[in-house]
Amino acid sequence: MASSGIVYASFDRFPAPKGAAVHIRAFAEALGAAFGPVDLVAIGDAPGIPTPALSNAVTYHPLGARGKDLVAQALTFRAHLGAWWHGRPRAKVVHVRSIFEGYPIAQRKASLTDALVYEVNGLPSIELKYHHPDVADDAELMRKLVTQEDVCLQAADLLVTPSAVTAEYLVSRGADPQRLRVIPNGVDLDVFRYAPPRAPEPGRPLRLLYSGTMTSWQGVHHALDACRLLLRDLPVVLTLVGPLRKHTRRALLDRCGDLLLQGAVELLEPLPQEELARLHHACDVVLVPLPANDRNCLQGCCPLKLLEAMATGTPVVASDLPVVRALAEDTEVLRVRPGSAKAIAEAVKALLAHPIQGAALSAAARARVERDFPWGRAQEALVNAYADDLGIARASTRSNTAASASA
User: Fold this and answer.
1) CB 383 within 8 A of CB 30
2) Phi/psi class of residue 12: alpha, beta or left (left: φ > 0; alpha: ψ in -120 to 50)?
3) Same fold: 6-186+375-406 with 206-372
4) What's the whole-number mean pLDDT along residues 324-351?
5) Where is the signal peptide, in residue numbers (predicted)?
6) What is the pLDDT confidence band of residue 298, given thresholds at 50, 70 and 90?
7) What string of H, E and C letters represents the secondary structure of 201-248?
8) Residue 47 has pLDDT above 80, yes or no
9) So what's the architecture of 6-186+375-406 in CATH?
10) Domain range list for the chain
11) With respect to CATH, is domain 206-372 assigned 3.40.50.2000?
């Protein structure tokens, strides 16, 4: 049976107001424009979020992922993916983002596809304990996760990751560096438009912004502790934007404590990108307080929230980690010692005392993103990897060849 099209499968909710969904759409659209039909398969039924308009080359297939825990949800999604695949022609390429959809495909790669692309943004053997602390001591589950990750790494014809730190870790796990491509995340520059930093106004509280997962591995507790320190000297409002799961809500509320009663902290659910960009412009400093842990330093990451903040022009205070240094020079963001609320507070005070420094950081950060991190550059790099490393012919090339043959 002849191979047909690209399947982009992801155990992520789509659409959703988070970086993964933005990334998925950007890559699926790029592949569709370059190579023809793409079937996008992801977790659907996101409440209250309309499916974005996709190009004619991308067909979205929402699948269910029900269950009381992550394992049950993954098994349900795998079952639905198998049912969706039944009777379909062999795919030219299957592109996966995790082991939850990737492992069963890697096991049956020979019968399902000509080529497998494994896009590694994170590995559950490292990240799962931060989302579900009760699994950290489950040695059997961790062994299965590592085994399934290794199967996907070995079966993939192309490995894509957004971070050089992640790439180095994958090589240490046995990945072939010749099949590995680093493609950093991008920013929609038309959504995250630039504006100079806000001018200070007498009596107005200093507004800080933290967006992302409300967990310790992202450093939200360091942002809260820095807010407490700053409140000793000036009025501050810290806005936290991101999802709050039931098991993390109580811990976060306890951590906020009296800050909520004082009006020094406000909690917002995830926002559409346009609203998030406007919120950046309404704040004085964005905090990216990533701690030094195995998720950020061993596995690596490419924090999209850092790039989006740099694009908007709001000055950024970020942890001085390799994953941050790969995206921003010290002339573009104010880098501070990881894990130190005091260092964050002192950096914020320095920006407040020296607005010229903030303006310089703002302009340089926007210029860096425009040069190195527009989504178009990431999309082009992915398309080139498909063409150069997998030998997939672009749709325009196939059309020209067909026209020449019929002439």
Assistant:
1) yes
2) beta
3) yes
4) 98
5) none
6) very high
7) CCCCCEEEEEECCCCHHHCHHHHHHHHHHHHCCCCEEEEEECCCCHHH
8) no
9) 3-Layer(aba) Sandwich (3.40)
10) 6-186+375-406, 206-372
11) yes
Where is pLDDT greater, at 215 or 309? Answer: 309
- Edge-to-edge strand order for the sheet containing 265-268? 265-268, 236-241, 206-211, 285-288, 316-319, 334-336
Q: What is the DSSP letter of 177?
A: G
CB distance 131 to 293 below 8 Å: no
Q: Is the pLDDT of residue 34 over 80?
A: yes
How high is the pLDDT of residue 401? 47
pTM passes above 0.85: yes
Strand partners, 93: 6, 115
Confidence of residue 48 (pLDDT cuts 50, 70, 90): low
Sheet holding 113-119: strands in order across? Answer: 58-63, 38-43, 6-13, 91-96, 113-119, 158-161, 180-182
pLDDT tens for each residue of 160-200: 999 999 999 999 999 999 999 999 999 999 999 999 999 98
Terminal CA-to-CA distance of the chain, rounded, Å? 28
User: What are residue 115's DSSP bridge partners?
Assistant: 93
Torsion angle of the four alpha carbons 45, 11, 58, 371, in this order, in degrees rounded to the nearest 10: 110
Contact criterion met (CB below 8 Å) for 313 and 196 = yes
Query: Which structure tokens are listed for 306?
Result: 């850092």
- 64: Cβ–Cβ under 8 A, 6 or more apart, which residues? 43, 44, 45, 76, 77, 80
d(CA 328, CA 306): 9
